[in-house]
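name: query_chain
kind: protein
chains: 1
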Amino acid sequence: MKALVKLDEIVAPIADDLRQVERVLHESVRSVAPLISEIGDYTFQGGGKRVRPVLVLLAARLCGYRGPRAIQVAAAAECLHTATLTHDDVVDGAEMRRGRPSVNAQFGTRLAILMGDFLLAQSSSLLVADGNADILGIYADSIRKMAEGEVLQLMRSFDPEIPESVYLDVIGRKTATSIAAAAEAGSILGGVTLSERRAVREYGWQVGLAFQLVDDAIDYLSSGDELGKSRFTDVAEGKVTLPLLLTLKRCSAGERAEIAAIIKSLAAASASGQAPADPEQVERVAELVSLHRGAELALERAGQCADAATASIAAFVDCEAKQALCALTRFVVTRRT
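structure:
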């Protein structure tokens, strides 16, 4: 299923601003250490959807702000996101990111960790330079929650008994919180009321949940070429996501026991340092997820989150930015990469 709208079409009204964001991103990795600049350019030239900067810019316009501060805050949002991706790839041992070697695969683990730290610092510097204490506080809270989410996920790796509520808490902390922060930061720039600010944050939160639910579903649905990495990496890395949780609810007792045994085997192999995961075992789990439509059901949940996101900003005056935000929710749930 292809996206109803293309991201380029959605961001057309803010294309000039996004180009300025890209300029700030590349400027932010200029350093007295030339290798930092090299790794930074490699990272930002790797593409990405730039959802967080887009949300800062569109939310600001929705709330009546079109000034230059949105560029800097948007760049800070992407710096923070890129830092977390760089660290996540180290934690996961990921070899690929967006169809090419990850930073840790290209430059080594130690440099990847340090680059992630550098980007975190640059994100903070951009926000301090902006000078809004509320925005700085939102991002500080977001960093804390993302770290907690990563630890919570690691604690429940290879655990088929993980409750759905815990899974939702993890993706809320790891993904939704940073997307919500981006949207809320834009609303703060617009100087709206507290209730309007909360509505925009709720929009971002629901979009963030939808985004991660779709990510978890397409790991089972899309080809490796589409994903830019291997398929079924979540289960191979011990991540029990919603498609598998929904499958475990719907499958027979025998199939449930089979999945539990496979996950136990994958956990043992991971603990012993054996890599990669047994592809036949991973394929069998994916086969059962397909049989019981776990990924499709997860996409339905994502659609519900997208509807909630659109509803949260319904009271705002209709404008180009509002239309773009509504289109963005459709893009999020219909994308397959």
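note: The first strand starts at residue 96 and ends at 97.
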